[in-house]
Amino acid sequence: MSVWKYLSTKEDFDLILQKSFSQYIFLLKHSDTCSISLVAKLRLESQWDLESDELYLVEVKSQRILSNHIAETLQIHHESPQLLIIKNGECVHDAPTF
Q1: pLDDT (0 to 100) of residue 16
Q2: Domains along the sequence of the chain with CATH
């Protein structure tokens, strides 16, 4: 099972955005209270070898301000669950994960 790094502040997000200039960043926008989101997260954990990647998670309900900041910064439409792949400070892939 993968280890998710939880983001909770805009500063956390800004740091991983800088990391994206040297590696791919995988960011899951997730809701702990949504069964569809839970299934999507479990699928990612079971079907991908994610251990070595940079895996980040934002819980959209408790981190609404951060979730909105991410959507605005990356110029994407918010969905949940949603997998974002970030490289060079931009979202190169944006997909609902259900």
Answers
A1: 95
A2: 5-96 (3.40.30.10)
